[in-house]
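Re: the 361-residue chain
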Amino acid sequence: MVLKMFDTNGYVVRPNPDISTIGSLAIAERHVRNERQSENDMHEIIGSSPVMQALLNQIGVVAPTDSTVLIQGETGTGKELVAKAVHKLSHRRGAPFVTLNCAAIPTGLLESELFGHERGAFTGAITQRIGRFELANRGTVFLDEIGEVPLDLQSKLLRILQEREFERLGSTRTLRSDARLIAATNRDLSAMMEGKKFRSDLFYRLNVFPLRVPALRERAEDIPMLVHHFVQHFARRMNRNIETIPSVTMEALIRYGWPGNIRELQNLIERAVILSAGPILQVPLRELESLATVRQIPGNHQTLKQAQRAHILATLKETRWVLGGANGAAKRLGMKRSTLQFRIKRLGIVRPAGLQSTAWL
């Protein structure tokens, strides 16, 4: 199952009436322009595994509401992609989707990034600045790495969640923001809460609807689909003609543990496309072996079988179910036609009834 979510409405800035300075408007326009630019990236949640189907169902349930969502998962699993999916499937999709990586901002500047500041609020504040919650009015704020927010600032986050109110730094004027909050973390907030490093009241306020994004090793059957997606994307970007992903290569990718999850896979495929001068994808498998031992999980044969089936099916669809010939599936898979016919039969793959018999050659 591929869930494609493209926002045809784009992003519209709806600043509060008190935004008056040219500098603040420029910041707002630049930020939303950057968000619109991200529309050109890969906004697809890809996966047919049971864990991903369950996640997609949960997204569909919570998206139409205004409830706070807490996305949990390892680094590189695609938490921001999930947050964008929730926004794009909500009634707020025509309003801004504003992001902030809390781990990337120095602690002293984080409050200003969230709530904004007035001119002269602190040394270096030469203009008024609009915070992310103000920019996202009637839209969505996505705070990545929420576990990095310091304790003294967590109380202010709690206030805006409960009361929808905040003040810019250096101002006593109370402003309101109707922004939905989606937060994400790769840390154990429950353990942080027990260690007095994260407020319990904020945790419970964030944890209204938790979403867990599975690690790539938990859905190995999705790897062929992801590999095909990334190969097509980077080949198109680099003007390359990649026609073949050898089965031995795909099986190695399926067996690898992927500690960096989808981000690691994406980066490897990008490098592979760069290295592929011809039509065969040249994946530097030795690099994977040097990073970690190729995983061998007892009892994982069914998952490997499902992944092989997905790879062959994806190739058959690309070749319109033609097996032989220069552009046939067998050549793209790097195997003999007879071998492919044997695997098709073993994996229970059946040609769609609508195809002409000449396509099954």
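The chain has two domains: 2-212, 216-359.
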